[in-house]
Amino acid sequence: MSRLALPLAASLLALAGCSHEPAPQTPAPAPTPGEPSAAVMPLEIVETPPVETTLDHPDVQNAAEVWLAMIQGAKRSIDIEHFYISNAPGGKLEPVLAAIEEAAARGVRVRLLADIKFYLRYPESVDRLASHGVLVRKVDLRARDGVQHAKYMVVDDGDAYVGSQNMDYRSLEHIQEIGARVRVPEVVAAYARVFAQDWWIAGGQVAAESPETKPLTIPARFTFGAEEVRILPTASPKDLLPAGVPWELPELLARIDGAERTLDVQVLTYRTKMRNGTPWPDLDDALRRAAKRGVRVRLLVADWSKREASLEGLRELSRVPGISIRFLVIPQSSSGFIPFARVAHAKYMVVDGKSAWIGTSNWEGDYFTVSRNVGLFIDGKAIAGQLARIFEDGFGGTYAEVLDPDRKYEPPRIE
Question: 69: buried, middle or exposed (CB in 10 Å: 19+, 13-18, 0-12)?
Answer without folding.
Answer: middle
